[in-house]
Specification:
heterodimer; A: alpha+beta; 2 domains; six-stranded mixed beta barrel; two-stranded antiparallel ribbon; 15 helices; elongated; B: alpha/beta; Rossmann fold; six-stranded mixed sheet; 10 strands; globular
Chain lengths: ~400, ~230
């Protein structure tokens, strides 16, 4: 058997080779860890933006509402649903919405748009509506005939804080519903279409106008841990059953999930190409370094080391060097990822491009997930070790005398 | 003396160096060497000395014929068994010393014994014993690149001898040494041959080495032209 001391001595003795191999594997590992962190970070930002601005992490609707959104497919017994939800643990908050479409009118003009009755205090936790306040004030649970309106919609209607506007639409009983309300605040999410068409009122007041007491189009649920959406979705569906159904963001926003998967595929294809290049760089470098040792290996074979012993020695060197490189690179990549996790990268001037991906913020934090970092380090370790196998096997095919004579 | 310790029967070696280029190394060569002999194989360059040693040591294959070492036919053995044979029964001394560059003299000497999984204490004891016999105690902690050629060759001899092999093959061991160092090395080898009872086969065209031989074999064009027994 090869003395382990020899493996360590070779690593120390062939210092230049060892340093270059460690640096190569460290840089590539750091690159992989960092690029994964950025890719996952941008995806998480997209999800957070898309989910948190308005739709929420989980929606409960009537079973047929998604296919046929209309008053015939409302949640008709909201109180009973609330009682059921109160029994389910791991729910941080929930709130009902009554979403309808109305015609807004001012003296200046009329514009069609969405009007949603919300439970203002609960909604603060469920979406970013409160934090998107631009001017005036957000709603509260005691509000009456006041509206919280999109900044762009307010501009189109030419109203400001304290101004009045009228809306007309259909009540839940299909009667005509209309009211005159005062602008209490405006919001700006950064998503133009949303800001140009949406307005919010206190649901308790809107229910009187729309004859929608104890009814809702959606109940939005915020799980205590958003990673547990799937589990809580199952639990809610078991509990509420019947006409209503709970769906997590990855179902309600399936197209976004698909887009992210596609983006990940392209990301991994790019990384794959980089990996292939790295694989060959390390392989060629190993080929050069092990070939510089052909004679030495020939002598070792001549004095009784078996080909397997040589293989074990060279692979052990490769494993140790790769391990050190991958650990250093992983640590470096993790530190950089952690830094950008705490201090998101700023992409000022790219707002319009970002909006195409539902991203209203120009700051993208890296994702810092130890398991993903460990996965990337494992990938790089396997890649580094595998890339040295061919040169080692090739070297081991030499007969001792041919190796000793090798120039 | 066991006269059939090493039997070489009708061994031929043909090197195929390229398309239609064939170089004859050995031609139906037959020899018999006894246990504990001190043999020198001499002859001009290209006469087949190194080829013969390589085939005897299992470092190269014979094209034809057979080699039997202490009753074991080594021609045709698989590489793993050949490696074990070399490790346990044969010591090599090369013209270019060929010490393992990252190991100290002590580690080079103990390397084969470590491959044999001998006990640490036994290895240390043997290294000290052989180093004292060869007068290289002060070199034990030096790396090969910190030693002169003669010193390296003495360490190479110690490496070959340390595991107490039955046979030592030395391919022109004095070729890179000055005459004084060469003479001292030969004296040392002779002493080892006598004290340890190891069969030693040299290849050389150095008159000094040839003069020390007890059994002299002269090769020319791959054929034995002289075989002088003690």
């Amino acid at each position: 058997m090869i003395p382990w001391k020899l493996v360590l001595k070779n690593i120390r003795g062939y210092r230049k080779r060892s340093v270059v191999t460690v640096v190569l594997s460290a840089i590539t590992t750091a690159l992989l860890v960092f690029s994964s962190a950025i890719m996952d970070g941008s995806h998480n930002t997209m999800i957070k933006n898309a989910v948190e601005i308005y739709p929420g992490y989980m929606q409960i609707t009537h079973r047929d509402f998604r296919d046929t959104p209309g008053y015939e497919n409302l949640i008709f017994d909201l109180d009973s649903l609330r009682r059921s939800l109160a029994n389910i643990p791991d729910i941080a908050a929930y709130g009902a919405r009554f979403e309808t479409y109305v015609l807004y009118s001012t003296e200046a003009r009329s514009v069609g748009g969405m009007l949603t009755g919300i439970e203002p205090r609960a909604e603060k936790q469920l979406s970013r509506m409160a934090s998107s306040l631009y001017e005036g004030e957000y709603l509260d649970d005691e509000d009456g005939a006041v509206v919280y309106i999109g900044f762009e919609l307010a501009k189109r209607l030419k109203v400001g804080i304290g101004d009045e506007l009228a809306f007309i639409g259909n009540g839940a009983d299909y009667s005509m519903a209309a009211d005159v309300v005062t602008v209490k605040g405006t919001f700006r999410t950064g998503l133009f279409d949303f800001d140009a068409s949406a307005a919010f009122m206190n649901k308790r007041y809107l229910d009187e106008v729309m004859v929608s007491r104890n009814m809702a189009t959606h109940v939005i649920v915020l799980p205590a841990n958003v990673e547990d959406c799937g589990k809580i979705e199952d639990r809610i569906n078991q509990e509420v059953g019947g006409d209503n159904v709970a769906e997590s963001w990855f179902r309600t926003m399936a197209s976004l999930v698909q887009a992210m998967k596609l983006d990940s595929v392209f990301g991994y294809i790019t990384l794959g190409i980089i990996f292939i290049v790295i694989f060959f760089v390390i392989m060629i470098y190993t080929l050069l370094t092990v070939y510089a040792r052909v004679r030495e290996v020939g002598v070792m074979r001549a004095i009784g080391t078996t080909p397997w012993g040589i293989f074990v020695m060279l692979v052990s060197e490769s494993v140790l060097l790769s391990l050190v490189g991958v650990l250093l690179g992983g640590l470096l990549g993790a530190c950089v990822a952690y830094y950008f996790y705490l201090n998101p990268m700023e992409f000022a001037g790219y707002e319009e491009q970002f909006k195409q991906y539902n991203m209203v913020a120009t700051a993208i934090p890296a994702d810092f997930a130890p398991l993903v970092i460990a996965r990337d380090m494992l990938i790089m370790f396997v890649l580094c070790v595998c890339s040295t196998l061919y040169p080692i096997l090739r070297l081991n095919r030499y007969r001792p005398m041919d190796a000793i004579r090798h120039v | 003396m066991d006269n059939d310790f090493l039997l070489i029967e009708k061994v031929s070696k043909i090197f195929e160096t390229g398309q239609d280029v064939r170089v004859v190394g050995l031609v139906e060569l037959s020899l018999s060497i006894g246990r504990g002999e001190f043999v020198v194989v001499s002859g001009p360059s290209g006469s087949g000395k190194t080829t013969l040693l390589n085939i005897v040591g299992g470092l190269d294959d014979a094209t034809k014929g057979r080699v039997v070492l202490d009753g074991l036919e080594i021609t045709g053995l698989r590489e793993r068994k050949l490696a074990a044979l070399r490790r346990d029964h044969i010591g090599f001394i090369f013209q270019a010393y060929n010490l393992i560059p990252v190991l100290t003299a002590r580690e080079n000497i103990s390397y084969v014994m470590q491959l044999q999984n001998r006990a640490k204490g036994e290895i240390e004891e043997r290294v000290e014993e052989i180093a004292s016999k060869l007068g290289i105690q002060e070199l034990l902690d030096k790396l090969p690149n910190q030693m002169s050629g003669g010193q390296q060759q003495r360490v190479a001899v110690a490496r070959a001898v340390a595991s107490k092999p039955q046979l030592i093959l030395a391919d022109e061991p004095t070729a890179n040494l000055d005459s004084k160092t060469a003479s001292s090395l030969m004296d040392m080898m002779q002493k080892l041959n006598e004290e340890e009872g190891i069969t030693i086969i040299f290849s050389s065209h150095d008159p000094l080495v040839i003069s020390k031989a007890k059994h002299s074999i002269v090769l020319r064009d791959g054929v034995v032209v002289e075989n002088v027994f003690p």
